[in-house]
Amino acid sequence: MAKQEVKKRPSTVLEDPSAKAVARVYAEAYLNAAKAVGVQQPLEEFASFQDEVIDPNPDFYQLLTSQFTSRDDKAGIIERVVKPRASELFTHFLRVLASNDRLDLLPLILSECQAEQERRAGQKRVLVYSAVELTDEQVSVIRERLKTVLNIDPIVMPQIDPNLVGGLVIRVGDTIYDGSLKTRLRMLTHRLRERYLHEIQSGRDRFSSSEGN
Q1: HSE-CB for 186 with a 13 A CA cutoff
Q2: CA 145 → CA 26, 127, 137, 139, 152, distances in Å?
Q3: Is the model's pLDDT at 213 over the cut of 60?
């Protein structure tokens, strides 16, 4: 008798087009639950669990997310390993994820939690690309300038891009403000070329007009 093929999930949740939307639902539910019970810093415990338990222990994470680990077994692991060291809020949250077989969304849920918390606080992440590392003073100046110009409370996230000649490239959401030297030089070259072509065309027009006379 032929073996029945086991239906597999995408190898990573990022391959699932609905994963981010599902993660956002859980993120909002977690933050709302934390607010309801008066937890002031709900992401500290979540981030610590990711940084100190999940990331350094891939085998443990694999056990929690494997399709070969039953939901009851996952719940048992949470009770034995997590509950003695975590708050009731976070433990219950993991139980809910386990019961719905969604523990594989943990990293994505944390990311959505951070984004949602920033949104609720009126903050916005801003990626600032530069050719070399920016100093703390430069980051502070950029933050204040963005706050004034864009009327937002920016979370400046410096990024090094060695392909930049100089200047900055700033990304706010899907909007890119390109003030790099490379771009300015390219624009200058384009303007000079356009001016050169215009002058050639003007000369031709004048020459044609003289011949006609």
Answers
A1: 9
A2: 35, 14, 12, 10, 10
A3: no
